[in-house]
Amino acid sequence: MKTFFRKSKWRFARILLAAFVFIATCCILWCIPGTEEYFGIQYGSALLKLFADASLGAAAGVISITLVTLLCGRIYCSVICPLGIMQDILLIRRKKNSFIRWTGKFKYPFFLLCIAALLAGVMLPLTLFVPSANFVQIVNFVFREILQWTGIAAATLRPAPAAALAAWGFFILLIVLVRWKGRIYCNTLCPVGTLLGIFSRFSWFKIRIKQEKCISCGACERSCKAGCIDAKNKEVKFENCVMCMNCLDSCKLDALHFTHDRIKPAEHSPGRRDFLIGGTTLLGAAAIGGLGGGMLRKSSKSQAVMPPGAGTYDRFAVTCLGCGLCISSCKGKVLQPAVGQYGLRGFMQPFLDFEKGACQFDCKRCMEVCPCGALQKMTLPEKQQHRIGIATYHPQRCVAYLEDMDCGACSEHCPVGALDMVPYKNTLIPKVNEKLCIGCGACQNICPVLPVKAITVSGVSPQIKVEKPKIEKSQKLEAEEDFPF
Fold first, then answer.
1. CA angle 23, 25, 27 (to 5 degrees)
2. CA distances from 315 to 318, 324, 373, 376 (A)
3. What is the pLDDT of residue 358?
4. How far apart are CA 169 and CA 165, in angstroms?
5. What is the model's pLDDT at position 432?
6. Phi, psi of 133 (to 5 degrees)
């Protein structure tokens, strides 16, 4: 019988390629700024981007991975998905595995629940369980934190405790699941794994068991990371197979083959009951999602400032995966994961925290690295005329207004000249020109008044284009000698 991908050399090639991808991915996130767009080829992100803006690049990525899966199964899960590779690393020295029968009872209902929530306008389940988003969150808020605690790296990201706790919680959950049942996360909770598993049921090349050679010794079952081999019944649940190739090496009788030839009996496939359970869950989730989504949308109204390119909040909420790539690549260090700023609906989605920085006038990195199309790309001149928020002046907090002293820091740092200094008593106070203000937050960030700033920026939806910035800035004061700005 003609076979394909046999024995050690293919397992070795898989390990070598996976190691290269994992190291390259970590380098992209840590060491090589400007290469984060690589994450656009991750299946979950590319699929969302395809629906968000019909990108040709996203379409090419989705079609390529789907075709590879239809050809030879879920190779993506072991070679390209960084979270899958990380699970393989956590599995080192874990030898004993067993066939898992009950995954379909959980994964299909959970997958349909995620889709129903998305249709209801709630991205939260996908934010918490799409692997590319999970991996970036773990790198940003777990691995970086460990390096900062040990003094190896300087502190760069300071997320809210709840955001860091969510990343740590998922990382610990992943470790527990991996040490308990191997790649069980990939076959129960991962929406990408479930979708690719459906495609892999129809793949041309599959791992099959030769009935006449197999003696049901269980060696292949024990070596299977995904628990997809039933040695007793000589069956392979191929939709759960992540193509690690371990079973090919473990069989000493040459009873396992990766082939397109059909060997009887056919491999195990999910029964009708699994799909009935999933269908019932979809109907229930759609009803609950419609009500719950409406409540989440109502609770999500806030003054939080979305990143440039977000457009409207309704669009941003259902396209942003909350992966955090924009947060780690932000030059101004102003982007932070939301905890309650958008309500529960927008947990982990980025917002601009002007206490930590300002949106730099000459930067558009967040739009360039967004892998899921939540931030529409603009040229730098377009971004510089793009309003993401509006400044509000509070004279009752301003030192110039209250104490008749010179300041003008907000006007000096406004990149578009949207703060005119107007006479007041013996000094000047700022006046916001709303036709020019883009909401970059430079004024709020630099304002010396504490604890509540004298000028604040609130978000707008939809984000709009404003008038072209002035060439000459408005009148400014000479700061006092002891003024820190």
1. 70
2. 6, 18, 10, 11
3. 95
4. 6
5. 95
6. -65, -45
Q: Which amino acid is at 285?
A: A
What confidence score (pLDDT) does residue 259 get? 82
Nearest to 485 by CA among 449, 451, 458, 454: 449
pLDDT the model gives residue 283? 54
Query: 312: closest CA among 121, 36, 445?
Result: 121
Cα–Cα distance measured from residue 22 to residue 84, given in angstroms and rounded to the nearest whole number: 10
Please state, in angstroms and rounded to a whole number, the distance separating the CA atoms of residues 263 and 166: 45
Find all residues with CB under 8 Å of 227, minimum gap 6, and list them.
Answer: 97, 98, 99, 100, 103, 181, 182, 183, 184, 187, 240
Structural element, H or E, at residue 296: helix 272-299
Phi and psi, residue 393, nearest 5°: -95, 135
173: its two tokens: 């959950």
DSSP secondary structure string, 106-127? HHHHHHHHHHHHHHTT--HHHH
Short-list 192, 154, 132, 166, CA closest to 369:
132
Q: Which of 238, 221, 218, 235 is nearest to 77 (CA)?
A: 238
Domain-wise residue ranges, the chain: 7-259, 388-485
Q: Enter the tokens of residue 340.
A: 């309650």
User: DSSP alpha helices (H): ranges in 204-362?
Assistant: 219-223, 246-250, 272-299, 313-317, 325-329
Is there a contact between 25 and 42 (Cβ–Cβ < 8 Å)? no
The answer to whether the beta carbons of residues 257 and 208 sit under 8 Å apart is yes
Helix then strand count (H, E) for the chain reads 21, 10
Distance of CA 44 to the CA centre of its chain: 9
462 in Cβ contact with 312 (< 8 Å):
yes
Cβ 46 vs Cβ 371: under 8 Å: yes
**What gap in Å lies between CA 200 and CA 188, rounded to an integer?**
16
Q: Do residues 360 and 332 touch, judged by C-beta distance below 8 A?
A: yes
Q: What is d(CA 285, CA 109) in angstroms, rounded to the nearest whole number?
A: 9
Judge contact between 430 and 485, C-beta under 8 A: no
pLDDT of 3 = 46
CATH number, domain 388-485: 3.30.70.20
Q: How far apart are CA 231 and CA 216, in angstroms?
A: 5
Interatomic CA distance for residues 412 and 479, integer angstroms: 10
d(CA 392, CA 457): 6
Tokens representing 333?
Answer: 């260090």
Contact assessment for residue 485 and residue 411, using Cβ atoms and an 8 Å cutoff: no
Which residue positions in the chain have pLDDT lower than 50?
A: 1-6, 264-269, 285, 288-301, 473-485
User: In this predicted structure, what is the pLDDT of residue 105?
Assistant: 85
Predicted pLDDT of residue 317: 92
Whether 72 and 243 have beta carbons less than 8 Å apart is answered as yes
